[in-house]
Amino acid sequence: MASPLVGWQNGDTSRGTFSIITTCATTIFACTWTIQHLNVPAAHDGELRRHVRVCKWMVITILLPELILAHAILEFAMALGCMREMEKKVAVSLDERESKIQVKYPSWMTRLWSFPAIWRRARARLLPRLRPDGLRDVEEQRRPRSTTSQTSEQGSPASQISEQREGSMSPRQTSEQGRPSSMAGETPDKLTWTLTHAYFANMGGFVYNPDWDGVRHQFKPAARPMTGIRLAAHLDFLRCPRITEAEIKDKSKTDGLGKVFSVFQISHLMLSLIVRRAQGLPISQLEVLTLAFAVCGVATYAAYWYKPKDIIVPVQLGSLNELVVGPDRDLRNRAKDDFETFRSFDSFWRVLVNDPGGTKDGLHRVPNDNIPANSDGFTHGATLLLAFVSALFSSLHAIAWSFDFPTAAEATIWHVCTILTILLPPLGLLGIPLSQATWRRGNDARDFLDASERVLRELAWLLENHWQKKEVEMARRKLEGLYHSSLGLDTPSTRQLYRDLLPAEIRKQMLDFVDKKGPFQNRAELELPRNYAPHLRQLFLLADGQGPKKMVEQVARTNVFPRGSLPTAFNSWFLYIAMGSYCVARLVLVAVAISSLRAMPQAVYNATWAEYIPAM
Q1: For 56, how many CA atoms within 13 A lie in the half-sphere containing its CB?
Q2: Three-state SS for 315?
Q3: Cα(383)–Cα(177) distance, integer angstroms
Q4: What is the pLDDT of residue 185?
Q5: Which of 27, 157, 253, 423 is the most exposed place for a label (fewest CB within 10 A)?
Q6: Is-contact 571 354, C-beta < 8 A?
Q7: 456 vs 505: CA distance, rounded Å
Q8: Cβ-contact 565, 548 below 8 angstroms
Q9: Helix 65-92 vs helix 285-303: crossing angle, to nearest 10
Q10: pLDDT single digits (tens) 93-145
């Protein structure tokens, strides 16, 4: 028999309505305000702007807590990627400077990764006594090559690099005591690079002056962030900042104890609900709603455990001229080209709206939606993670599916909104791969390549400047060579990006030539394919980074362009509609959860022993 519904309860001898509201409100506050771990602001960001930014992310956390969780997981993966990249650089380096750097993973992580090695050693001891000789040989063949073929390959360069990596800092490769080699032999003169260092660097904790020649240029930004991935990727010619983990934690505004208190508040609600469920007592819809926040909150805190919090002033590294090791001019030129074009992170928002722009590191600060850079040109893994986390988070609302509601209409609204919040995020994110789909239209790649070569031929004939004529002729010869070599072949040499073959100045001249502008107004007619002009404009927009990510990185190539795709606005509107509907459904769930407090089952207010545990 269902428990009778009662109204507002003061809670003099049991828990009351107000205590339920305050507990849920405190937990939601811990999951939205104190959980924020924003990146280091720019030097010109004032206090008001910083507070507005925090409030903005608090609103995002209330409406989309699963987005914050997905971003925290991606930031954790980005920090681990920085550790692995730093580890590889140190392992293969023979330079004394880099040999003084050691990568140290958290102890729990090294123990976790040592379990497979411990199991293999235990199995190796047991197998000779439990298996026949034939099966023992099979097991020996399955063992790592370092135990069977290391002697035979010891003299090869590849084996030497492998030995250096095995003897370096990898947490997966442990010593006989079950500890990684990176934790052995620590000396005071070594710089220890920890997960806190990786987080600190990726959040913009290190800044540098983009100056290669020792002269501060007037129009260059005073400071740019040196992310951990960028630093690790160029460690062969950059000095690593010497800062200890204790110094970084000293700059952080929240220590581990503060995080423990927040996690305790969240866990208190979760324990209370588990106890009530075990005793067969009902819970309110508001507590179910808060439970979803609590699960996301605990997982987010776990992912952010090593990330510093509320750091305002970054560490100044000086100019690149001071950071680059060695006076070799050729080394500096090669380093400069690679360093300035290197991309160490993507923008979560730009990935969601399928916008490839704005992902380079020439910024005054690291944006708060930074995620690992995607280099394959296809749909970013962040979208799949967000779809999974969103569906998992929203499915927690189904716990209240069979609860007693004040009216049948409110129960129906809860059911419909629960289903919508589960389905809308994956459907909304489906627009990203749809907008990245391409198909052949009009001219094929060889016809477009041939037409571009003929345009460059006429352009070189009409240009008067000797150096411009020479550059255009060089570009024309490249296209001509690709045109002849691409016949029936699909090799890496024929899959080149147009932006690498045609510099920006030549692209502008080609457009002026095709459109008969500037010095080419009175040029002779040139027979070109029917849609060549719009295709050329589209190509040059892609070459400038304007367009869907897949089109920019995979389609604007000599072997496939021109191809068609859905307009970028399709993905944006698809996402906006799905996200807007999702937020409305979430707000409706909140409204129904609050309105249901006016008529709750009497047993909801029966107290358990968990309610007597002190909490904030």
Answers
A1: 9
A2: strand
A3: 40
A4: 39
A5: 157
A6: yes
A7: 12
A8: yes
A9: 10
A10: 645 444 577 888 898 888 887 776 666 666 565 544 433 333 333 334 444 44
278 residue type, one letter: A
**What's the token pair of residue 467?**
């150096």
The residue written with tokens 């028999």 in the block is 1
Other beta carbons within 10 Å of 502: 24
More confident residue, 504 or 325: 504
pLDDT at res. 484: 80
CA distance 460 to 466: 9
Lowest mean pLDDT among 94-98, 202-206, 415-419: 94-98
- Any idea which residue has 């930004």 for tokens? 221
The Cα–Cα gap between 346 and 552 comes to 14
**Cα–Cα distance between 46 and 190 in angstroms, integer?**
37
Which class for 480: exposed (0-12), middle (13-18), buried (19 or more C-beta within 10 A)?
middle
**Angle at which helices 466-485 and 445-462 pack, to 10 degrees?**
160
User: What pLDDT is stored for residue 330 in this prediction?
Assistant: 62
Cβ-proximal residues to 321 (8 Å cutoff; 6+ apart), any chain: 211, 212, 213, 214
Amino acid at 156: S
Question: What does the domain layout of the chain look like in residue ranges?
Answer: 102-115+170-189, 439-565
Neighbouring residues of 284: CB distance < 8 A, sequence distance ≥ 6: 20, 593, 596, 597, 600, 604
Token match 């020439």: residue?
362
Beta strands in 213-320 (DSSP E): 224-225, 315-319
562 Cβ neighbours under 8 A, 6+ residues apart: 441, 442, 443, 445, 448, 531, 535, 538, 539
d(CA 331, CA 606): 74
Burial 246-267 (b: 16+ CB within 10 A, else e): eebeebbebeeeebeebbebbb
Looking at 158-162, 248-252, 351-355, which range is the least confident one? 158-162
* Selection from 195, 258, 247, 204 nearest residue 35 by Cα: 258
Amino acid letter at 451? A
The answer to whether the beta carbons of residues 33 and 58 sit under 8 Å apart is yes
Helices and strands in the chain: count of H runs, count of E runs = 25, 11
Contact 373, 345 (CB under 8 A): yes
The DSSP line for 546-560 is: -S-HHIIIIISBTTT
pLDDT tens profile 374-395: 765 567 888 889 999 999 999 9
Q: What angle do CA 581, 587, 592 make, to 5 degrees?
A: 125
State the average pLDDT over residues 28-55.
88
Peptide bond connecting 562 to the previous residue in cis, omega within 30 degrees of 0: yes
Q: Across 56-195, where does the E strand assignment appear?
A: 101-103, 191-193
Range 173-191 average pLDDT: 46
| Spatial separation of the C-alpha atoms in residues 228 and 345, rounded to whole Å | 10
Q: Which residue carries 């819970």 as its tokens?
A: 283
Percent of the chain at pLDDT above 90? 27
Q: What is the pTM of this model?
A: 0.73
pLDDT attached to residue 613 = 74
Identity (one letter) of the amino acid at 235? L
Average pLDDT over residues 248-253: 86
pLDDT in tens, 190-203: 788 999 999 999 99
> By the 8 A CB rule, do 254 and 592 touch?
no
Torsion of Cα atoms, 329 then 333 then 334 then 337, to 10°: 170
DSSP letters spanning 341-399: H---EEEHHHHHTT--TT-SS-SSS--TTEEE---SSS--HHHHHHHHHHHHHHHGGGG
Q: Which residue has the tokens 């439990």?
A: 130
